[in-house]
Amino acid sequence: MVFSSLLFLFFYLPAVLLVYYLVPGKWRNLWLFAVNLVFYGWGEPVYVLLMVFSIAVNYAAGRLVAAHRRKGRLILALNAVINLGLLFFFKYYDFLAGTFGLPVLGLSLPIGISFYTFQNMSYPIDVYRGDAEEQRSFIRYGTYVALFPQLIAGPIVRYKDIARQLTERKETLEQFASGALRFCAGLAKKVLLANNIGALWDVYKALDPASLSAADAWLGAVAFTFQIYFDFSGYSDMAIGLGRMLGFDFVENFNYPYISKSVTEFWRRWHVSLSTWFRDYVYIPLGGNRKGKGRQLLNLLIVWCLTGIWHGASWNFLLWGLYYAILLILEKLFLYDRLRKAPAWLGHVYALILVIIGWVLFSVEDLPSCALYLRSMFFGGGGLISGTTLYYLRSFGPSLVIMVFAATPLPKKIFERLPEGAGRILRPVLTLCGLLLSTAYLVDSSYNPFLYFRF
Amino acid sequence: MKKQSFSALPTVLCFALVIALGLILHLSFADRDYSENENRYLAQAPRFTLKALFSGGFTADFEDYITDQFPFRDSWLDVKSRAERLSGKTENNGVFFGKDDTLISRFPQPEEKSITAGIAAVNALRENTGIPVVFALVPSAAEVWKDRLPASADTADQAALIRRIYEGVDAATVDMLSALSSHASEDIYYRTDHHWTTLGAYYGYAATAEALGLTPQPKESFRPVTVSDSFFGTVYSSSGVRWVKPDTMERWVPDSGVTLTRYDSPEGTVSPVYDESRLEVKDKYSYYLGGNVSRAVIETGHGGGKLLVLRDSYADCELPFFFAHYAEIHVLDLRYFRQSVSEYTSGEDFDAILVSYSLSDFLSDPAVALMGT
């Protein structure tokens, strides 16, 4: 099930909330556990069993680690083999088989497997490190992993961040209200902004990349740059909002990434929960920056190759990861210090252009087409500009202006500056207008994908 | 602390009310079978079976059902198309907001194989039947009314497509594009429907008649009668646009002395040439010849030969102009006709075959290939 659907908004959500607040506190986790399975099983009736199996394995691993601390490393290693084995089998087997000429299985990717596998694995590790207590209740643990707000596209909530909330959370009216507003804002980002500009990217993606004019190629790349941000951060907003409505506090996942002045800064602001996961469970265990410069650069390279292929089983994602590995290493070596001394606008231009190029590597999965697309951006395969550019610039111009504005902290700052009374009325009113307008777009929806569901 | 918790109450209530109302209203309204505005059947509640659930079919159907039966669906669509226009868009759901309240569908670039398949079908028809073929492809308003489209609107080059197809076929071809373009300032297409008007059909007829070796009747010899001034067509439906004026429909050729027999069943039924009852419903264009049927035979009461027409619905308002030229006109719709065309022609003595299609249907309707059977 997806959040931005009429089914979720007007059937699933009211039913879940109604029962959740009617039953006594001790039954709430059980109710959530049950509706999580409905949420996941709605689109993946078979793979729900896989998810429950994965939950059971990690639950058992956590308890075993707690009981046999001295054999902890062995248990963790075995557990990692099972988790990553499943992830590898469903996500990467066909890709490698295709590359090496083995028979391809053609299984569909279980939705959210990359997200819940990482969440799951964090638990026994946190227990082993003493960052979290073991969780004795299977229902409670299952509620954590399969919690529908963040189940299929993050944020990746680490067990230690949420352990206490599983047992002692206190739902309040303010928290619910702020959650509802956050959810509506995320929905509007997804439905009104991401889907809107996504239609433009779809136009350009379907054209021959070799014969695009430079302006068209840039417009297409900018369209995808906005689409993926509003799509993914909108999803995170909805997840965080839903979490609050149920009394949970999830980590933030995005912090206006497109206002960054360096690539290093961009990755501190983009998909924070994933970067944090890789930092805590891969980069630091590999030695981080404590074993000399050479080792640190190698560690960065490893982490970014993994980050790349985490996003998908395809060469372009590996290339995308490598691209960022190289940029981050360059910045670490000398560029970052120089950028900090340079004027701010230069840093913005530098970071944005590199990020946009990054998204081209990310979104054009076929490598030769990707190369042609980049060539058109810089050398104009079909000239500098075309009639198509003008038509779409005019059609999407106002939307693009709104998106530039919405990708900065300005709207938030304006709201904070409003006199208190005005803000208290204006914010809910505007948000509800967003909800109603999103509904109108959903009723007429022919186009509503979630980009991050593939991961 | 107390005071703060109450300040959040209106937000919570509003949100809860909105999401709860969706469910309550859905349950309290009866499901609709058909949407007049959208001109299509709406999805109905799917039947639950375990098999459908595990194949994913049930859940997909259920979501279609909810979307189609959403309370006040038409008003939501209206809000969406207005919001699109407000945000600077010049199209919605593949329909351009043209000048003079004209709604024009984008013409998508066809696949290469549908072009070659169409050419092959027309050539096979000529070979298999041995009867002279006159081939007329009608471009859509996106080509003829280009100047009504938003600037640089992104739509396929129909002139080039027609040229390519005509070059490939072994048949007398009719230059519909010139015939229509030279009258582009007149109301030759509906503003809210994908068809041409009776006026447009007249110009099409005149060009086609010449290709058939006939002398077209002069325009002045007809007395147009307005039959409806409240026609909202298919483009209106798919566009979601609700701010335009309706179209006017005309009848030019009288039907006295003409017998139309529609073969929905083997026996056939004599039916009105102009079906007045259709003017009462959404699909008013079916007024001409009564709408889709696999085979129809028109006895005109005039002298002359026999014409076979393989057609799409564009021909429906054009065919009455041919009444004066032929004694009998047979009309086949290959989407429903389940016999081979050459078998059918071998039992009759047709003077000519007219293949009359809109370019759009010719390139997208798989039944076109059945011509060559």
Description:
The complex is a heterodimer of chains A (455) and B (373). Chain A is built from 18 helices and no strands. Chain A is mostly helical and 455 residues long. Chain A folds into 2 domains: 6-169, no CATH class; 175-454, no CATH class. In chain A, helix 13 runs antiparallel to helix 14 (344-363). The longest helix of chain A is centred in the middle third of the chain and has 34 residues, at 173-206. Chain B folds into 2 domains: 2-71, no CATH class; 103-372, no CATH class. Helices cover 35% and strands 18% of the residues of chain B. Chain B contains 13 helices and 15 strands. Chain B has helices at 2-7, 9-28, 50-55, 57-68, 73-86, 112-129, 141-144, 158-168, 176-181, 198-211, 234-239, 341-346, 359-364, and strands at residues 34-35, 40-41, 91-92, 95-97, 103-105, 133-138, 172-174, 225-231, 247-251, 259-262, 269-271, 295-299, 305-311, 326-332, 352-358. The longest helix of chain B has 20 residues, at 9-28. The model of chain B has no long low-confidence stretch (mean pLDDT 90). The interface between A and B is large, with 52 and 46 residues.
Structural class of chain A: mainly alpha
Helix residue percentage of chain A: over 70%
Q: Helix segment count of chain A?
A: 18
Seen as an oligomer or otherwise, the chain set is heterodimer
Following the backbone from N to C, one meets helices and strands of chain A in this order, namely HHHHHHHHHHHHHHHHHH
Helical content of chain B (DSSP H or I, runs of 4+): 25-40%
Task: Return residue spans of chain A where pLDDT drops below 50 for at least 5 consecutive residues.
Answer: none
Sheet/helix structural class of chain B: alpha/beta
Average pLDDT over all residues of chain B = 90
Count of the domains of chain B: 2
Mean pLDDT of chain A: 88
Largest contact between chains: A-B, 52 and 46 residues
- Low-confidence residue ranges of chain B: none
Largest sheet of chain B: 8 strands, mixed
How many extended strands of chain A? 0
